[in-house]
Specification:
The chain has 240 residues and is of the alpha/beta class. The chain has helices spanning 45-52, 65-70, 99-109, 111-122, 139-150, 155-163, 167-179, 183-192, 197-211, 214-220, 225-235, and strands at 5-6, 16-17, 27-29, 34-37, 56-61, 81-83, 128-132, 236-238. The protein is built from 11 helices and 8 strands. Strand 5, helix 2 (65-70) and strand 6 (81-83) form a beta-alpha-beta unit. Helix 3 packs parallel to helix 9 (197-211) and helix 4 packs across helix 5.
């Protein structure tokens, strides 16, 4: 089960510090090193103040250019804010497929984009790195999974973290499902909003079987040895 700490950033609904997750060799992810979140545009003035006082080194915004333009981050234009997309405008997303199948297709098409996102975590200034998209589940979930895998967190622990959606997020998803009246649309939406552990396990298994593991996949995308070392150094601390 994940040991991450839920953070109160009003009015975000899915913010967790991933400190405490065990890594290979007896280490663990350091507290205050990696935070995952839903859309920071939800932040109130009080929430923005909390973030500014939290020692954040980088906010990694994984939303598309169109999303960022339509719904600007409260930190847009600052050195703190870093936008890295994970898909190109013409990339496919088939609602008839299982969620994990769409993850795999996007990973196969865009190793350079995923490598750039993980590099942004590795090379951030000192302080916590906040990784967010819109709901804090899919794009954030995949990039956080890649970073945690590179740091030596087990696939099972990564999958448990991916599945740990907040009660507020689940309530919001249930509202969206209730508003979908067409049965096919509702079924597809239910799949899109899911966060089953097996979805993440299948994604990581694909990287193992198709590329020789997460590190090999990211290196194919252009992630260099220095960035790999820096990511591990900033995320991992001794459990002793």
């Amino acid at each position: 089960m994940p040991t991450s700490q839920i953070l109160d950033w009003p009015d975000c609904i899915n913010v967790r510090d991933l400190g405490g997750l065990a890594t290979a060799g007896g280490g663990r992810i350091a507290a205050g090193a990696l935070i995952r979140s839903d859309n920071l545009t939800r932040l109130t003035e009080a929430g923005i103040k909390i973030v500014r006082e939290a020692g954040i080194g980088r906010i990694l915004d994984l939303r598309s250019a169109a999303e960022c333009e339509h719904d600007p981050s409260p930190f847009a234009g600052e050195a703190l804010h870093c936008n890295r997309i994970l898909a190109r405008p013409d990339d496919p997303w088939d609602p008839a497929l299982r969620l994990g199948e769409n993850y795999v297709i996007n990973l196969d098409l865009n190793p350079d984009l995923y490598a750039a996102a993980v590099e942004a975590v590795a090379t951030a200034p000192a302080g916590a790195v906040v990784v967010h998209c819109h709901s804090g589940k899919d794009r954030s979930g995949t990039v956080v999974a890649l970073a945690l895998s590179l740091a030596g967190v087990s696939a099972e622990a990564i999958a448990a973290d991916y599945a740990a959606v907040s009660e507020q997020t689940r309530a919001l998803f249930n509202e969206w499902l209730a508003a979908a009246t067409d049965p096919t649309e509702r079924e597809q939406l239910a799949e899109e909003l899911s966060s089953r552990p097996e979805t993440m396990i299948a994604m990581l298994d694909h990287l193992d079987s198709g590329y020789g593991g997460t590190e090999a996949y990211l290196r194919r995308g252009g992630l260099g040895s220095e960035a790999v070392d820096r990511l591990r150094s900033r995320l991992i601390e001794s459990a002793g």
